[in-house]
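Re: beginner question about structure tokens

> Can someone show what the tokenized structure looks like for a real chain? I only ever see the sequence side.

Sure, here's an example I had lying around. Input first:
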Amino acid sequence: MEEQEKKGFVVRDRRKVSLDGLDDDGKKEEAQEEKSSQASAQQAPRDAAGEGSSQAASEAHRYPEVTFSTFVFSLSSSALVHLGEVPDPATNKVEKDLSLAKQIIDTLAMLEEKTRGNLERDEQQLLQTVLYDLRLRFVKQSTS
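And the corresponding structure tokens:
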């Protein structure tokens, strides 16, 4: 019975590790992957030079750079849609969903709390202004 209790399984790591964390086979595989990724990266500009180059250029300019401010504006826009202040961009209809609007406002409030002391002055002011405006709009929509 004691012998059965002592039985279990043993995990052995049989990988060979060098000082930089890769064995010779791993280095070879990594080098091959790097070569193939470089080849595909070189192929992409050639493909884009044809019919898709203008499409690729327009796709690159479709979305703004992701910054803290654009993130706050994105959340704010979503809250405005759910407050019924602006039409939904997907359907072009104005619809209210106050519970979703409240969730987004609460998310922005949490973001303000968690980033306190880590934001630039302009970012902090933007977040405070957006929160103030959204809260006022929420109260207005909730009481009407």
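Each token stands for a local structural state, so reading them left to right follows the chain. Residues 68-143 form one domain.
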